[in-house]
Amino acid sequence: EQTLYEKASVPVKCVGHPLVDAVHSDLTSAQAKSHFSLDENAPVLGLFPGSRRSEVEALLPVMLATAEHIQQRDSSIQVILPLAPGLDRALIEPFLSQTAVKVKVISGEFYDVVRSCNAIVAASGTVTLEIALLGIPHLITYRVAPLTYHILKRLVKIPYVGLCNIVTGENVVTELLQKQVSVSELAPRLLYFLTAADAKQNAESVQQQVLKALGPSGGAENAAQAVISFIDAKSS
What CA–CA distance (Å, rounded) separates 157 from 12? Predict the structure, then answer.
């Protein structure tokens, strides 16, 4: 947004996004796995289907089918799902009861849950920015009714839907939308994240790009100082 204001000759200062300071986990990956009673030596796949009923109903079934496909390839892979605040567990239980995948559902401790994962598939939203800031390999997914998608596609002029890609202006995290949200598209990418030696390194590179795009730490204090400086300038 800074560039937008500058083009309009509006005085502007980037003070830093609050997530830069807020997103944090004191645990290592192994410690986080142990904390949630997971095998420290086995990969963990995170399923993050969103916080709205419509998101869960559209995305969780294909996420679970993907996890089942992946476990058929490698039975050691563990699956974890953080229950979004305000989301009733009863909503996801019917989906969990219809899959052979054993899913550990966790309420709270969100950043520690992210830290425990080796790969994540997530609904598009702020959560993907948080995952990127913790340096975890992930995919961005979203699916809405076809008519809704076609209307939005005409109205929205930016090339990306994922916040990581929007703030950096680059396609740094793969986005799979609509018909691309399928086992055949998700599974190979997630298996790569779970097994490739360079997947974590690439995710940490994305982390640095996102951090740079979001501005400095101390956003709240920086904002206060900017306001004080503005007032002082006007008073003098």
Answer: 24
Of 212, 236, 233, which Cα lies nearest the Cα of 11?
Answer: 233
Q: Which residue is it, tokens 């779970």?
A: 194
pTM of the model: 0.90
CB 130 within 8 A of CB 23: yes
Q: What span, in angstroms and rounded, lies between the C-alpha atoms of 104 and 208?
A: 30
Spatial separation of the C-alpha atoms in residues 143 and 180, rounded to whole Å: 9
Specify whether the CB–CB gap between 64 and 99 falls below 8 A.
yes
What average pLDDT does range 29-38 have in this prediction?
97
Beta bridge partners of 48: 122
Q: Smallest Cα–Cα separation from 162: which of 182, 185, 140?
A: 140
pLDDT of amino acid 159:
86
**Strands ordered across the beta sheet of 119-123:** 103-107, 78-83, 44-48, 119-123, 138-142, 175-177
Q: Which helix (H) or strand (E) holds 45?
A: strand 44-48
Decide the pairing of beta strands 103-107 and 78-83.
Answer: parallel
With residue 79 as reference, give the H or E element that holds it: strand 78-83
pLDDT of residue 125: 92
**CB-based contacts of 219, cutoff 8 Å, min separation 6:** 15, 16, 17, 18, 20, 21
